[in-house]
Write a structure and sequence with these properties.
By secondary structure, the protein is α+β, with helices and mostly antiparallel strands. Strand 2 and strand 3 form a beta hairpin.
Length: about 675
């Protein structure tokens, strides 16, 4: 028994020894693995740690950077603040790291990074050590940021601001440029001890609230000697400046601002700039914008933002603790914005605005032989300079709630063209052989319907006349004649003809315009609608610029000229639609349009001149839900000089809404006559 027990005990001992050895090996291996990873940080070698470090700069993850470094006496907060201020301050991006060599405790490398001032490249050496908590880490001091940087140095970026380009008219008159305004602010130490009454007076003068002013004064950075800016006022308002300076503590300082000398007259065309918003910065990343930048918000200021704004110049330097420059890291020279010279004649633009400023309407003026756009006006308007200086809440509400919609750009929209479409219905009929210019189609009176199937619906016109020729139909603006003309053509030929004039197409022009149409759904299927469309009603809508381009066919042997807005020293016509009208039919219709203006019975006779021959067509579109009722009327006048050798050839299209109580299209004719008198007579 005892011998068996001894053998059993011996076997147990012999089995325990291998188990102990196995456990010991496992512990040693585990310890080795643990020690290896502790020594190597996250299991990466120094080169990989260095690359990760710089990748976190690009992603602005400064806390992860901190986890890879030994900063010595520098706190975590100070490390993060130092790196963030420098890298984000210089606009750092696109960092590339190239490892040159690696020793046991050091890595030599090259860095190239992109900044606001261009590329910065340098060579450096990084040292590594073991940290009891982090493992292998980068030994960090300020030289890791830039080799010559010390803890007492500062990295500064200086901005040389690019001048925004000017917008000029054809004669180099400034339409948008640099002006002067006054920044209004308070110096707290110079205010009366009890300044509540002064603040109330100041708030009233500036269109602010007392609470808003007190809020500005209570900011943490404000001291007795601080200038606390409140708003910006026009340099031209001397009376307001005088009142402000009577208030204790108020200070005015001159500032450069974008200025629009013609304000309301060109507001919808030129547009305005405004301070960059957070949304703008998100939409335009890495394009050099900062919170201090301005950006085009509407009109040509927005359309030509890239050309106008230029590029700021930047210098990135290292300065010592005394503010002395140690080195220049990067330099980029500024590039001022381009000037944009337009085909616009501001005298004509302003004349049109002054005539129609109280009306809801728009005007387009062109040189019909070159395509140069001489004026684009939308009324009523607003003063773009107010947007530069800053609108008060009351001013903004007034603009937005105005029923006449001064912010609405009408020259980009479409409207029922009324009788201004009739020459083109005639052109389609002449081309298809359904209209004979010499035939007397007889009298239809002032009310007509095709047959009883139209029920109570009649096409009406203002006056009867004789003989019933095409020329007289245009002179007297006969709706019935052109309703019949459309019906004789049929919907397919009529709409195909309008397509040849650019309907349902984008007009090739710098500013995008709404497309003209002849039907809401693209095709005319109803007989009455077809009849109404023949004289520019039904569902026909035309853009004013497109309509003007259509009328250029009468000055160019039937071809429609492409409009343009950017000035050329040697202007020449570019054809948009060739032979929209045949030369023969162009001659016929041009003579008829001359009669509209020069025949005493013509609807456009109020614009007749003795010093220049004009041709054109009036139009009145009735917008009403039911025949026999009254409704809104839109008045039009399209008129052009007929002499290609005239000193100032011009084609003018004007539209006014709500002319029902103003005399219809005659109201528009008389105002255009005044504009032409000033323009052609000057």
């Amino acid at each position: 028994m005892s011998r068996k027990r001894r053998r059993s005990s011996s076997r147990k001992k012999s089995m325990v020894l291998p188990v102990i050895l196995i456990v010991a090996v496992i512990v040693i291996i585990a310890a080795g693995v643990f020690l290896f990873f502790r020594l190597r940080g996250t299991g990466e070698n120094p080169s990989d740690i260095l690359k990760n470090y710089f990748s976190y700069i690009t992603s602005q993850d400064y806390e992860k950077m901190y986890n890879l470094v030994d900063t010595g006496d520098v706190s975590k907060d100070d490390f993060i603040s130092r790196n963030q201020n420098i890298y984000e301050g210089i606009g750092c991006s696109d960092i590339k790291v190239e490892i040159k060599s690696e020793e046991k405790d050091s890595v030599s490398y090259s860095v190239t990074l992109t900044t606001l001032a261009g590329e910065i490249s340098y060579d450096n050496t990084a040292r590594f050590t073991n940290d009891s908590e982090k493992g292998t880490v980068l030994v960090w001091d300020d030289s890791v940021i830039f080799p010559e940087l010390t803890s007492t140095d500062k990295v500064r970026i200086y901005t040389d601001e690019a001048a925004r380009g000017q917008i000029l008219d054809r004669n180099n008159v400034v339409l948008a440029g640099t002006g002067t305004a006054y920044s209004v602010g308070l110096v707290p130490g110079e205010m009366n001890e009890d300044h509540s009454a002064d603040v109330e007076t100041l708030a009233e003068l500036l269109g602010m609230t007392s609470d808003a002013i007190e809020s500005e004064l209570s900011q943490g950075w404000v001291t007795d000697d601080s200038f606390v800016p409140l708003t910006t006022i026009s340099a031209s308002d001397a009376d307001l400046r005088s009142q402000l300076l009577e208030i204790s503590g108020v200070m005015l300082s001159t500032v450069e601002v974008r200025n629009y000398p013609y304000g309301e007259a060109a507001a919808h065309l030129i547009g305005y700039v405004s301070s960059v918003t957070a949304e703008d910065l998100e939409e335009h990343p890495d394009e050099g914008y900062s919170s201090d930048s301005v950006i085009g918000k509407s009109g040509l200021e927005s359309l030509y933002e890239d050309e106008l704004r230029g590029k700021n110049g930047y210098t990135i330097v290292i300065e010592d603790e005394n503010g002395e420059q140690k080195s220049v890291l990067a330099y980029q020279e500024k590039t001022d914005g381009e000037d944009i010279r337009l085909t616009i004649d501001i005298t004509l633009q302003q004349s049109l605005y002054e005539q129609f400023q109280e009306d809801e309407g728009c005007s387009v003026a062109m040189n019909p032989y070159t395509g140069e756009v001489l004026a684009l006006v939308s009324t009523p308007s607003y003063d773009t300079n107010q947007f530069i200086l800053g609108l008060t809440t009351d001013q903004w509400d007034t603009l937005n709630n105005d029923e006449s919609q001064p912010l609405y750009n009408r020259f980009r929209q479409t409207f029922a063209p009324g009788s201004t479409l009739k020459p083109f219905t005639a052109a389609i009929g002449l081309a298809e052989g359904t209209i004979d210019p010499n035939q007397d189609y007889g009298s239809n009176g002032t009310s007509w319907q095709k047959d009883a199937s139209w029920g109570s619906y009649y096409v009406t016109t203002l006056q009867d006349y004789s003989p019933g020729t095409l020329e007289n139909a245009l002179i007297y603006s006969d709706n019935i004649f052109f309703a019949k003309a459309a019906l004789n053509l049929g919907a397919d030929k009529f709409t195909a003809g309008l397509d040849k004039f650019g309907f349902n197409q984008v007009v090739p022009f710098e500013i995008k315009m709404s497309q003209s149409q002849y039907d809401n759904d693209g095709s005319i299927t109803e007989e009455i609608q077809l009849a109404d469309s023949g004289y520019g009603q039904g569902q026909v809508l035309a853009n004013p610029l497109h309509l003007a381009v259509m009328y250029t066919a009468f000055s160019n042997n039937g071809s429609m000229i492409q409009p343009y807005l950017i000035y050329k020293d040697n202007p020449s016509a570019t054809v948009w639609i060739e032979n929209a009208i045949s030369q023969e039919n162009t001659s016929i219709l041009t003579e008829d349009l001359k009669s509209v203006v020069n025949n005493r019975a013509g609807s456009g006779y109020a614009a007749h001149r003795n010093d220049a021959e004009l041709a054109g067509k009036t139009g009145t579109a009735e917008l009403k839900s039911e025949q026999g009722t009254t409704g809104q009327e839109i008045g039009w006048f399209s008129v052009f000089t007929t002499d290609p050798n005239a000193a100032k050839p011009v084609l003018l299209v004007s539209m006014v809404e709500h002319v029902e109580d103003k005399g219809g299209s005659t109201y528009v004719v008389e105002k255009d006559d005044a504009v032409l008198d000033e323009y052609l007579g000057s």
